[in-house]
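Its record is set out here:
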Amino acid sequence: MKRCSTCNRTYTDPNLSFCIDDGTPLTNIEAEDDTTVVRPRGNEDDEWNAVAYKPPGGYVPPGTGAAKPRRRVWPWVVGIGGAFLLGIAAISVVAVILAPRLMRSRENPRVAVREPNNSNTAANSNSNATERADAPLPTNHEQVLAQLTDLENEWTVANINADKKKLDRILADDYVGQAPGEEGGLEVKADYIRRVERDTDTEKWEFSDLKLTLTGDRATLTGIITYFFKDGSVVSADFTDKFVWRDGRWQATGAELRRRGEVGTPL
């Protein structure tokens, strides 16, 4: 005889190992009187053929199921923390690289004031920085003086090389200047560009005694330009050039050149 330790029911079927009500394993006990014996239902005259008990499909007897391993949390925490730190490091590197470029792009490309280059050659001359059409009008006297000195050097190089494309950019559309030669006279932009020819005699030049008069978007630059030729001769001339600020850059609106004379002293 067997008994369920949970519901205290007893069973006489030796094939039963678990309680048919709650599935608790049965324990063997000594036989008692028949009043506590559970007998099979049905016709008492028929022989009862007990069917072996099958526990429920989802039931796992205590001690027989394999314990599921606990998932470790710390690898996830370390992985997420590492990815976060890498992201911050990448953003910092990008910021360090891009910040100076962004700062430079916001600056006026013509703001930097440079000392005039007093000795120039056609192969080595200053060139204007890249202009923007919306660049603000410069008002600082030293800054404008440096910008126009650079422009004068570009203008001289364009004349020597007969660079008509460069001259077209330097000269304003309403340019009117002094024509070369003994007779002088005036010439407009189209005449200037048409008659310019390549100069193979000038070796270098120098600007000196530069003076700037700045009035709003108009500027006048005066000074002396000295040409040094390959044959050793030197020629100086006084010049007066006029400029206007348009499309984010200085453009020449007029020019006057008065030759001082030729000096035969070689360099």
Remarks:
- DSSP finds four helices and ten strands in the chain.
